[in-house]
Amino acid sequence: MAEINAYEGPAEAGFGDYVALLKPRVMSLVVFTAFVGLWIAPQPVNPFVAFCAVLFIALGGGASGALNMWYDADIDAVMKRTAGRPVPSGRVTSDEALAVGIALSGLSVMMLGLAANWFAAGFLAFTIFFYAVVYTIWLKRSTPQNIVIGGAAGAFPPMIGWACATGGISLESLLMFALIFFWTPPHFWALALFMKEDYSKAGVPMLTVTHGRKVTRRHIFAYTLVLAPFAIWLGLTSVGGPLYMAVSVVLNVMFIAGGWRILRRSEEQAQADGYKVEKRYFRLSLYYTFLHFLALLIQHWVGGW
């Protein structure tokens, strides 16, 4: 009897693939900053309501990730960093990713409105639209300022958390937005310095592709200088205090110093050591936002100014 060969195609999607579709690493920052924004707001929130609010904000962030993966499947497939994602690898179909994104968008917005308030729910709906349509569909493939303008989507969660508690916007929530908004470009441009070829192959007009690494280095340093005053200003508001201020000053000195080292490097030096300084700066940027918001949280517990 002839041996029947098993079909060798894309592996069937498992639960982990659908979790990966929601970009859990990105979602973790969304969840944490939203939680901090909600918890340090002046109006106390019932812990169960706070848990539900953060859960639905997380689902909204996951919906954005699924819609992003649905639309970007073609460029994800040619980039080394993203080729293993569920859609380009074939484990999840584009239609499934779209369905998950739309379903979670509607569910998260509706439930956040019921759990917290409709202002926060509307804010979440706008954030999902901004990331999926304004950034992913429009900006990402059309301008080197994609990550600058599109970075607003990742900066909204603490404002949404604050709105869940207060029903509105304040100077404090705007400064939390500014901290993430001005941090995003140097964070991603540092990555682009040593991943330029990926973006070139995918045809994404990242700044390193359209203007070169030298210009990108200048932009990174410029944004660290713009970022620092907003981060420190937040420490002077009602949510700040000496602990936050100390953490912020140290982190911003390190961030500016790292940006200066990147600025002073030639491409020959970077290639010679495998972009060691740029990779170190990128790792620092991963801790920068988390430690700022952790400091805000601890400052709230111990008392501010």
Write the layout of secondary structure elements.
Blueprint: H1 15-21, H2 24-39, H3 47-71, H4 73-76, H5 94-115, H6 118-139, H7 146-150, H8 152-155, H9 157-166, H10 171-194, H11 196-202, H12 207-210, H13 213-234, H14 242-264, H15 267-272, H16 276-302
Function: Converts heme B (protoheme IX) to heme O by substitution of the vinyl group on carbon 2 of heme B porphyrin ring with a hydroxyethyl farnesyl side group.
Membrane topology: Multi-pass membrane protein
Catalytic activity: heme b + (2E,6E)-farnesyl diphosphate + H2O = Fe(II)-heme o + diphosphate
Keywords:
mainly alpha; 305 residues; flat; disordered N terminus; single chain
Could you characterize the architecture of this molecule?
It is found in: Cell membrane. This is Protoheme IX farnesyltransferase. Its main location: membrane. It is an enzyme of class 2 (transferase). Belongs to the UbiA prenyltransferase family. Protoheme IX farnesyltransferase subfamily. The protein has 305 residues and is an all-alpha fold. The chain is 75% helix and 0% strand. It has 16 helices and no strands. The protein has helices at residues 15-21, 24-39, 47-71, 73-76, 94-115, 118-139, 146-150, 152-155, 157-166, 171-194, 196-202, 207-210, 213-234, 242-264, 267-272, 276-302. Helix 2 (24-39) runs parallel beside helix 16 and helix 13 runs antiparallel to helix 14 (242-264). The longest helix is centred in the last third of the chain and has 27 residues, at 276-302. Mean pLDDT is 92; it is low at 1-9.
Shape annotation: flat
Beta strands, count: 0
What is the C-alpha radius of gyration, as a whole number of Å?
21 Å
Distance between the termini: 83 Å
**Which range best describes the helical content: under 10%, 10-25%, 25-40%, 40-55%, 55-70% or over 70%?**
over 70%
Residue windows where pLDDT falls under 50 for at least 5 positions: 1-9
Major β-sheet annotation: none
What is the helix/strand order? HHHHHHHHHHHHHHHH
Assembly of the depicted chains: single chain
Structural class: mainly alpha
SS summary, helix count: 16
Give the mean pLDDT: 92
**Beta-strand percentage?**
under 5%
Subcellular location: Cell membrane
Family: Belongs to the UbiA prenyltransferase family. Protoheme IX farnesyltransferase subfamily.
EC number: 2.5.1.141
Keywords: Cell membrane, Heme biosynthesis, Membrane, Transferase, Transmembrane, Transmembrane helix
